Amino acid sequence: xxxxxxxxxxxxxxGMATRIGNWLMVLVVVAILxxxxxxxxxxxxxMLVDKSANTGNYxxxxxxxxxxxxxxxxxxxxxxxxxxxxxxxxxxxxAVPISFLCSRNIAPAWVVQPMRxxxxxxxxxxxxxxxxAFLVAVGPGPLAGVLALTINNTGTLAKLFSEAVESIEAAPxxxxxxxxxxxxxxxxxxxxxxxxxxxxxxxxxRFESNARSATVLGLIGAGGIGQLLFDNLNGYDYASxxxxxxxxxxxxxxxxxxxxxxxxxxL
Amino acid sequence: xAAALVEVKSISKTFTRKAKAAGGSTIHxxxxxxxxxxxxxxxxxxxGPSGSGKSTLLRSISGLHTIDKGQGTVAVFGRTVQxxxxxxxxxxxxxxxxxxxxxxxxxxxxxxxxxxxxLGFLGKIAGxxxxxxxxxxxxxxxxMAALDxxxxxxxxxxxxxxxxxxxxxxxxxxRAIVQGARIVLADEPVASLDPVTARKVMKxxxxxxxxxxxxxxxxxxxxxxxxxxxxxxxxxxDGRIVYDGPAAELDEGTLKEIYGAEIEDAYWGDDNAR
Lengths: 267, 274
Ligand SMILES: Nc1ncnc2c1ncn2[C@@H]1O[C@H](COP(=O)(O)OP(=O)(O)O)[C@@H](O)[C@H]1O
Ligand SMILES: [Mg+2]
Fold this sequence. Notes:
heterodimer; A: mainly alpha; MetI-like fold; 2 domains; 78% helix; B: alpha/beta; 11 strands; 26% strand; globular; disordered C terminus; binds adenosine-5'-diphosphate; binds magnesium ion
């Protein structure tokens, strides 16, 4: 600024309070690590060496995967992916309107606050807990998995979507408002084009993660490859378990790569 | 006599800013009892140092800001836009008669220039058609004619964020034309443009005023542009009107008073502007 004398200019300094705060933060982190050392049984780390003979036997079976039943495994993997597809799709449908109600630049504060609490609640329940609840509600099988994924993902996606909505450029939206457009038209023409690519990217990212979750949900009886894995584990059939695990790894990796490629192109 | 195009009566606007350090807040009066009237389609330049309240005044006229409670009112074509700190219920209908052009980011970047201009119809079409962008053949022709008039018809299919600043501003003018706006409010429409492009854009605004009898209120950073392209000047300083009169009669002395030490900045526009 003109008129300011050079001697007035002092570089910014970090205040005492901030520095003490930073040190406290470090102390807290160290304290947490120390306290949880015993709780997490880190002291048992030597077992890894002591039990190496056991591990060897186990690995032996893994090194000779048994693919005779591969058609059944592939079908189950496909079922798991279908669970992930529908879980993701339904949660997108729900998350879009909810995310607007969670965005400060769209909805009034008295709507935003409770809605944010609501989606935090959706995220708070682990997939497994929701899955168990839906097993009771709709019976064992893929639908329970779909519904569990939907609930959990709606919470996460609504949060990610609304963060994108809150960081949009205001001027184009005002441009739409200034033509006499309605609130809904402002959203359709001013907001959605701005967040579209980011939303798609988030949705794909969640699909990747859902493909993994859907596998785990199978363990509790929600169908798909997870269930098959669980059954074979219980029968100590490690050669089949190994084959199933390989199929899961390949499928999940393929989805990751594919979705990453699409996301890269979007942004 | 017909109602005035724009009637601004004693409006004030106070901003409350959260002050971090004190934990409290500071208040700032951006507009202080501002009044003016546009009786016939004129070209009014709003000038004044940065922070003097030019944008706030324009935004208050289009109802993007609500003014302070009190006796202030804004009316356009005799219809109240806002009064006593409240927007009128039919503000959407009034907005449809006003075109707004901002300094930048007027257009939605990922939509095509064509779609951006077609959004000018939103105030007039209802329901699904407006939400899905189902423009009629006649509407499409109007969009293309407007784009052709401002000289960017060739770029109709291009995404707005791939266009130059000048092309985007022309797009915003085309949208105002499509809207059938009878008043255009432009907030520093040429501030980020090179002089040649800036003059083309200003000429389009002049043309809109003379050909279509559209009232134009334009905030400008450069006094040269204001004197060249407008017939009336409104000068703001610290939220008050300090000059309101013919562009030709604004003299050096008054300008010094308005801009103070910043007077040099007010002339960065080029000499060829005239
Ligand atoms: N949304 C806002 N919140 C707080 N203060 C604002 C806001 N908009 C403008 N102001 C303040 O009001 C004053 C006038 O701003 P503005 O109308 O943008 O000035 P100009 O367009 O003449 O440069 C400035 O001091 C600015 O900091
Ligand atoms: Mg401004």
